């Protein structure tokens, strides 16, 4: 396997895509970007390191292209792969299902052998429930909220990318 990062994102209004492009700018040429609406299960094979980007829609559902792709994940062998997750969500408008999509994807991909990295603290967010929370005070990835905290996005992404450089050992 090559030491490359495959970043697979699904986006409806462009927010997840724009963050994907920022992550690629920060990590550099090691990153290949895939819009999940055009990807296939075999696209995952070459990557030891993966980044999964997915927004949450409709009270706790995955973004529609990821929702459509979801069952194809069963065809991918995630054993030996290290996986990081990020998603945009809306903690005020959808406080009962904030960031559920990355929680569902992380649960699924972990069950297929993927090793999760890129956990972040829930400090600084205000919401009622999220399927993305692990051990009470950590998201299983990076939670972005362009609807309410867009001023924090850049620093959150930058800090997370630095964390990934270490956890991916790039
Ligand atoms: C109808 C609707 C439902 C939404 N449902 C949720 C939700 O359940 N949880 C959440 O965290 N965000 C929710 N959001 C917020 C979106 O995830 C957010 O706007 C995000 O930036 C969209 O990213 P995208 O353009 O990449 O798809 C919802 C937004 C809309 C308009």
TrEMBL record:
PROSITE patterns: FLAVODOXIN, FLAVODOXIN_LIKE. Residues 5-165 form the Flavodoxin-like domain. Keywords: Electron transport, Flavoprotein, FMN, Transport. It comes from Calothrix parasitica NIES-267. Its cofactor is FMN. Belongs to the flavodoxin family. Low-potential electron donor to a number of redox enzymes. It comes from the Bacteria. This is Flavodoxin. InterPro entries: Flavodoxin, Flavodoxin/NO_synth, Flavodoxin_CS, Flavodoxin_lc, Flavoprotein-like_sf. GO terms for molecular function: electron transfer activity; FMN binding. The keyword Electron transport applies.
